[in-house]
Every structure is written in structure tokens, then in C-alpha cells.
Design brief:
Elements (H helix, E strand, L loop, with lengths): L1 E3 L3 H17 L6 E3 L5 H13 L18 H7 L11 H8 L8 H12 L8 E5 L6 H8 L9 E5 L6 H5 L4 E4 L17 E4 L3 E4 L7 E4 L4 H4 L5 E2 L6 H23 L1
Parallel strand pairs: 1-2, 3-4, 3-5, 5-6, 6-9
Antiparallel strand pairs: 7-8
């Protein structure tokens, strides 16, 4: 895991991933670089990890400092070690239904649905958000043939007209908008399944730290209308880390076969 700078959320994510590696008995290395690291220096680190045979998969934690081109860094990662599934080659394979890896957060959502016994075949899935990390790959995965997919998919976003009229049609509503409590009860159909991907820190004077984590869904009010709903924290987040570990194991297996 490569971390540039001291973004508090990124530091927490990297620490959690390292802890999970330790629990699973997986070798892990965290490369921590200062905020003012030059783009060229970061690219050299990526090149070194590409050729390091002791490392089967790695990720560069996003977001990066503004002076570094994220696309250039992602494109420099060896697709065979791209366990975040951000490289265009892996995104393309995922899109046509022949994935080397699946992006960790959407894959975690899909596994959550499968393992909770939620039938997705023929169901109307509405994805709220169109990011390259969650929204777009989530839509692409749910429309594929197979378990946890075979869905009819609609993507809505910040420019969608009358967005609530579309979210109310969803049998399965997957929310990744990045806005706290964005989805309210009046935007959800009775009996819908709601997966909340959002993680937002909001002020809370009653909390010991003065803040707390909430999702993109108004959980307390929306849960009354749903047949199932994922919590924040403790829902999609742990699944993301699990799928990242699964991708790393898959990368190690493929590396062993190719020797």
C-alpha cells in the first residue's frame, strides 16, 4: 500500500488494510511518502513495486495530492498487480465480462447481496453516483450475466432530472453519492433493498471525538421502509477490504501459475 501525504481518512483505510493482512497471515508493506513527494518519485516507487516479486498486488491510496496526476500513476501500475482494478486494461476486461479482478467496493456490494440471499435477476437496480471507483463499475457488474447480476440497471447522478422519481422505482438501491444523508425515506420504495456505500464524517457534539460517521442514506428513517439495508459504519467498508484481500490472493495464484 502506497500512501502519499497525511489525509486522515486515507491513513485509517491503509491501517485497516494492513491489519487485515496481518490477521490473514499475508505479507504487507506500507510505503508512506510525504505530501510534497514529486510525481516522478512516486512513479519510480510504482515501477519498483511492479518488479518486486515478493509483492503480488499493490495499490496507491487515493486521493493523491493535487500536484500528482492520478491517471498517470494508475496507468503505471502493472495490471497483473492492480488489485484495486483501476487500470484501464482491467476496467475494460471487467466491462466485457471477462475480469482479471473486480473493483473491491462494487465486488463487496455484490457479494453482500449474494450472501444475504437477495435475488438480483430481472430486478431494477438504481445506482446513485457515477464515479469511476463505485458508480460506473457497479452498474457494469450488475448488468452482466451471472449470480448477483442479471439486473436492469439505471444510473442517476447530480445532473439527473427528478432523481427521486427514479430512485423510487428501485428494487435494489445502491447509493454512492458522497453526500451525508442524501437519500431520504420519500426517495425509497416500500420493501426495497438499500446498500449505502457512503462514508461521511459529520459534526456530533455528543460524540467523544466531536464527530461521527454517517452514510449517504438517512438510515434511521429509510430502514423503516426497506426489506434490507446496510449500515454505516460496518457495512460495505469491511466488504471492500475483504474483496481487496481476495484480489491479492487471486493475483498470487496467477503469478504462481505463470512461473
Amino acid at each position: 500500500m502506497v500512501l502519499v501525504g497525511s489525509d486522515p481518512a486515507s491513513e485509517v483505510y491503509v491501517r485497516m488494510k494492513g491489519k487485515k493482512c496481518e490477521e490473514l497471515g499475508m505479507h504487507s508493506v506500507t510505503v508512506a511518502l510525504p505530501e510534497d513527494t514529486a510525481e516522478e518519485e512516486l512513479l519510480k516507487k510504482v515501477t519498483g513495486l511492479n518488479s518486486d516479486k515478493s509483492i503480488h498486488g499493490f495499490l496507491v491510496q487515493l486521493p493523491l495530492p493535487k500536484h500528482i496526476d492520478e491517471k498517470k500513476v494508475i496507468n503505471a501500475i502493472d495490471p497483473k498487480k492492480d488489485v484495486d482494478c483501476f487500470h484501464p486494461a482491467n476496467v475494460g476486461k471487467m466491462l466485457i465480462g471477462e475480469p482479471e479482478f473486480l473493483p473491491a467496493t462494487p465486488a463487496g456490494v455484490q457479494q453482500m447481496l449474494v450472501r444475504s440471499g437477495v435475488d438480483t435477476k430481472g430486478k431494477h437496480v438504481v445506482v446513485v453516483g457515477r464515479s469511476n471507483i463505485v458508480g460506473k463499475p457497479m452498474a457494469a457488474m450488475m448488468v452482466q450475466k451471472g449470480d448477483g447480476a442479471d439486473s436492469t440497471v439505471t444510473v442517476v447522478h447530480s445532473r439527473t432530472k427528478d432523481l427521486p422519481s427514479i430512485t423510487r422505482q428501485a428494487d435494489i438501491l445502491i447509493v454512492a453519492m458522497g453526500k451525508p444523508n442524501f437519500v431520504t425515506a420519500d426517495m425509497v420504495k416500500e420493501g426495497a433493498v438499500v446498500i449505502d456505500v457512503g462514508t461521511n464524517r459529520v459534526e456530533d457534539p455528543a460524540a467523544p471525538s466531536g464527530s461521527r460517521l454517517v452514510g449517504d442514506v438517512d438510515f434511521d428513517n429509510v430502514k423503516k421502509k426497506t426489506s434490507a439495508i446496510s449500515p454505516v459504519p460496518g457495512g460495505v467498508g469491511p466488504m471492500t477490504i475483504c474483496m481487496l484481500m481476495a484480489n491479492t490472493v487471486a493475483a498470487a495464484e496467477k503469478a504462481a501459475v505463470s512461473r
